[in-house]
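pasting for the record
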Amino acid sequence: MWVITVYSTDESIKMFEYESELEAKESLQSMKGRSILSHVVYFNDHLVETVAN
């Protein structure tokens, strides 16, 4: 899961959840204010990452 936390100029905080990194990064470009993109990994998630030789 990917989460964007946006700190708006009016002192409000909003959080948005995304399933994919690409979707989150596309949304991040259009958001105003300071923002943080986080990758949330749970200990019981099954992650498969390719390793280059």
